[in-house]
Write a structure and sequence with these properties.
The structure is a homodimer. Chain A is built from 9 helices and 6 strands. In chain A, the strands form 2 sheets. A 4-stranded parallel β-sheet of chain A has the order 4-3-5-6. The relative contact order of chain A is 0.08. By secondary structure, chain A is of the alpha/beta class. The radius of gyration of chain A is 23 Å and the shape is globular. The first copy, chain A, folds into 2 domains: 43 residues, Orthogonal Bundle (Helicase, Ruva Protein, domain 3); 122 residues, 3-Layer(aba) Sandwich (Dna Topoisomerase Vi A Subunit, Chain: A, domain 2). In chain A, helix 2 crosses helix 3.
């Protein structure tokens, strides 16, 4: 049954606000029409304060979170948008001369949890993906280059090293290649995260690409 | 890592409103922590009006939908709570002497889409499930019995037949058994939906319970 016909039939029986809720939920990624109905009925069944709490959490997050004006990481909104700084950029103890470039805020969190990096970040908010029509202009690449070209855009510190911490995937590698070309003529030291055998894994189960990386990147002990 | 520790670590890096949004989304059924994060980032990425539209759809549905005062089906809230009637109960052409008992509003919709039933419904809002601690008192059984005992509670019409349209599952059958016992001494005609081979299926793939139902319920042609 086509979606419009299904909607018309449902509309005949569900109250309009319920139809609207199902439609809105079905727009979320990974949530099909069936799951959207199940979630809608769940929200109609729980105590009203629970549903309203989710409702306000969504509105709050959308209204009070802004990209950090330096690195595009998620940040609580400051007194005004121009002063919004994320927790990392606001921390004066971080080494602002070293920028680690990640695809998304979740990657930043994962890296932060190691406690191994004392520099700052730059969040691209995606990766170059020709198939999905995402080009460099859709990412925060211009902001990254501005930080390197002008210390003023990097809270007053000149950038010495850029660490590419993109995913070891086709798209991540493509993005790294593009950034490497842009950064090469700016005379800044450029590194990327090491590739090889994941700690705790077994060599016999590693695939060819992992083994190839491990051989190519072998180090003296 | 225990949830509290995970939350503390995340809190160190995500803005508090984002943590709250992830926590709220993770409370939805079938949404794990990972999916909740993915949904939260989706909501932070879409145009603000899209996120606010979902937020208001949730609040609206919770505030403007009430159980129908007769059958407990979902209904748009009336001028006041006592006057809330669902679309089926409000329709004077329906045969109010025949009540079909279903577990949830979704079942009602599925049955309505056949266009085969001209009576009215009663939505139990669940089924008796000892394992989940759901007893008859947690359902709208009292309201159903009231409709049968007092025509005043059934919009002025005396009930002649009750059709049990519960799921053909262990819990649905248990609920039917309980209702049958309650209804037996009320002198109302009691029926249940037919069981047998699902239309369009193949006999060789039907399981034992389906075949047993089909044999037991065989009809002259």
């Amino acid at each position: 049954m086509p979606a419009a016909a299904a909607r018309a039939q449902r509309q005949a029986a569900y109250p309009a606000v319920v139809v609207r809720l199902i439609d809105e939920l079905a727009r979320l990624p990974g949530i099909g029409r069936r799951s959207a109905e199940r979630l809608a009925f769940h929200l109609l069944k729980v105590p009203p304060e629970d549903a309203l709490s989710l409702s306000s959490a969504i509105a709050d997050a959308r209204q009070k979170v802004r990209p950090c004006r330096v690195c595009s990481n998620l940040a609580d909104i400051g007194p005004d948008a121009e002063h919004t700084l994320c927790a990392v950029c606001a921390d004066a103890r971080r080494d602002r001369a070293t920028i680690m470039v990640v695809e998304q805020p979740r990657d930043l969190i994962a890296l932060e949890q190691t406690g191994m990096f004392r520099g700052v970040y730059h969040v691209l908010m995606g990766r170059v993906s020709p198939l999905e029509g995402v080009g460099p202009a859709d990412l925060t690449t211009a902001e990254l280059l501005a930080r390197i070209d002008d210390p003023g855009a990097n809270l007053g510190t000149a950038v010495k090293e850029v660490v590419l911490a993109l995913n070891p995937t086709l798209e991540g590698d493509g993005t790294a290649l593009f950034l490497a070309a842009e950064l090469a003529r700016r005379g800044v030291k450029l590194t990327r995260l090491a590739r090889g055998l994941p700690a705790g894994s077994q060599l016999e189960y590693a695939n060819k690409a992992v083994l190839a990386d491990a051989i190519e990147g072998r180090r003296p002990i």
